[in-house]
Amino acid sequence: MTDRITKAVIPAAGLGTRFLPATKAMPKEMLPVVDKPAIQYVVEEAVAAGLDDVLMIIGRNKNALANHFDRVTELELSLASKGDEKKLERVKESSDLADVHFVRQGDPKGLGHAVLRARKHVGDQSFAVLLGDDLIDARDPLLTRMLDEHVTRGASIVALLEVDPASIQMYGAAAVEATDDPDVVRVTGLVEKPAPEVAPSNLAVIGRYVLKPEVFDILERTPPGKGGEIQLTDALMEMAGDVEGTGGVYGVVFRGRRYDTGDKLDYIKAVIQLASDRDDLGPELRPWLTEYVASFDRP
């Protein structure tokens, strides 16, 4: 396999009910993480890995996503007339990042259905799927490694993260076999949100996938599963058996920094962590945080 993968699919049709009322009129993907919407971090990650053709699967009331990645000529002209080159550059960043396309999911039938909606755009090429709730720190590249493993092994690749066994019921859990690389495993089975006592491992599938195009045929015939939705996990479980010569499924075990912006508490943690690490904010924020935390022990 030598063809370079250029296409990324980002499902972004969810309602974001966990963040109501903030998401009543604003897509959850547009919630700011410091000074950029969460979705921009995801697109930047795709572009950094060489994926410059991005398809977003959206639902109703998601026009803000298209607007964010479009040009805003009047704003650019205003900033240029004021000589504010730094802000002008930041504004233009999102519109110059990638070739971004949009397609409606229509019926909310689950992640597998959202991925299936990308079929016409992707065609018969392998592609990556990035979920917007998972932000991967740019200093700990994951997607590039997954793309390399896809080429080396001729297989679909999922990202795996070791989690507290008590938390595995929040994820898809992978049954795995070791390979010659301690950070790469062969996936032999997947279970969607298992109870801890029956989970095959504490390796959780997180929101990064590199998929062969055969996944589309499998999703076409995959019946609704857990929650009455078409689960991508079910299709991957079938592919793990190397059905129809799909090459199986391998997992890259990620040991870097990941921020979950789909949960309110973890979203707040993500903002604090990323802001603390920035050169322009960290020097003032870190001492304030230290003082603030110390105040918890005061009478």
TrEMBL record:
EC numbers: 2.7.7.9
Q: Where's the Nucleotidyl transferase domain? A: 7-273
Protein's UniProt keywords contain Flavoprotein: no
Q: Which reaction does it catalyse?
A: alpha-D-glucose 1-phosphate + UTP + H(+) = UDP-alpha-D-glucose + diphosphate
- Any one GO molecular-function label of the UniProt entry: UTP:glucose-1-phosphate uridylyltransferase activity
For biological process, the GO terms are:
UDP-alpha-D-glucose metabolic process
Entry keyword annotation includes Nucleotidyltransferase: yes
The family database entries (CDD domains) matched by this protein are listed as: UGPase_prokaryotic (cd02541)
Top-level class of the enzyme under EC nomenclature: transferase
Highest taxon above the source species: Bacteria
Keyword entries, A-Z: Nucleotidyltransferase, Transferase
Database matches in InterPro entries: GalU_uridylyltTrfase_bac/arc, NTP_transferase_dom, Nucleotide-diphossugar_trans
Xref: PANTHER family: UTP--GLUCOSE-1-PHOSPHATE URIDYLYLTRANSFERASE (PTHR43197:SF1)
Q: Which family does it belong to?
A: Belongs to the UDPGP type 2 family.
Q: What is this protein called?
A: UTP--glucose-1-phosphate uridylyltransferase
Tell me the organism. Agromyces albus
